[in-house]
Amino acid sequence: MKVFLSWSGNRSKAIAEVLDTWIKCVIQAVTPWISTKNIDRGSIWFSEISDQLADTKLGIICLTQENKNKPWILFEAGALAKGLNSNRVCTILIDLKPSDIIANPLSQFNHTTPDKDGIWQLVQTINSVLGDKALSPTVLERVFETYWPQFEEKFKAVLESVPYLADETPQPKEALLEEILTTMRGLERQVRQLESKSAAAVKESSISRRKNSPIISSPFHVINDGLAADLNIEDIVRNLIATGYSDEAIENAIRTNPHFDVVDREIVSQNISAFRGT
């Protein structure tokens, strides 16, 4: 099974070469492919790598601070992602933390930290793709434990011997935050508009029900609303008439309400006749 090792920059290249040798010791059924060794002289570079990507079962991208935004590493990552399931494209974060590539196109892949737990998970992922040729979990763990010290030693040697070159292209954190804020504000406006429309629809529906279905909606609700709003008896009667209740329903509602006395009830009778023009 072919494993494509993607690199860009001196530090990334050195780690890819360590992986090239080390992976074959741990899982012999795997054939790593790395451009520094496997492209013949005279071959067309772009065409050769494209052909190899098309025949790859799993890809490992060696990421550093130097190359995380470089076009070449992004090209190879994109080609791998196009041809493989995203679960079969892994990155190894050589001198990075996962938080360093949040706004990066490579953030979608499975990230491997270069510690023992991280590399063990990477080895298990590679082994799982082998199908019938996969090593048993017990054998795989024993082989890994045997060869892990070699990887750890060589990895540290690369970090010490190959200088760190910072990526001169800063992460657009301010722009990212501004975009997030803009999006959140837009969502907030949309929520407010929906809430406003919903409240208006509920109010309109309530008024319609009271006008069209006086039997269903009680006049006591109208009276209680008027009392809560400190309306006088005349205004409450106007609201009852406007809502569509009959004279009898209005008089019964006023008569049985403890907030009104005999004088109020007489006023009600007079106002009903006046408001109805009789």
Question: Brief overview, please?
Answer:
The protein is of the alpha/beta class. It has helices spanning 10-26, 35-38, 45-54, 71-83, 116-129, 137-161, 173-212, 219-228, 233-243, 247-255, 262-276; strands at 2-6, 31-33, 58-63, 89-93, 110-112.
In terms of structural class, how would the helical and strand content be classed?
alpha/beta
Instruction: Determine the N-to-C terminus distance.
Output: 98 Å
Helix content: 55-70%
H/E element sequence: EHEHHEHEEHHHHHHH
Q: How many strands?
A: 5
Number of helices: 11
Main sheet attributes: strand count, strand direction, barrel closure: 5 strands, parallel
Structure description:
With 278 residues, the protein is an alpha/beta fold. It has helices at 10-26, 35-38, 45-54, 71-83, 116-129, 137-161, 173-212, 219-228, 233-243, 247-255, 262-276, and strands at 2-6, 31-33, 58-63, 89-93, 110-112. It has a 5-stranded parallel beta sheet with strand order 2-1-3-4-5, sandwiched between helices. Helix 5 (116-129) packs across helix 6 (137-161). It is rod-shaped and about 105 Å long. The N and C termini lie far apart (98 Å).
Summary tags:
60% helix, alpha/beta, five-stranded parallel sheet, 278 residues
Helix-strand layout with pairing:
Layout: E1 2-6, H1 10-26, E2 31-33, H2 35-38, H3 45-54, E3 58-63, H4 71-83, E4 89-93, E5 110-112, H5 116-129, H6 137-161, H7 173-212, H8 219-228, H9 233-243, H10 247-255, H11 262-276
Parallel strand pairs: 1-2, 1-3, 3-4, 4-5
Helix pairs in contact: 1-6, 5-6, 8-9, 9-11, 10-11
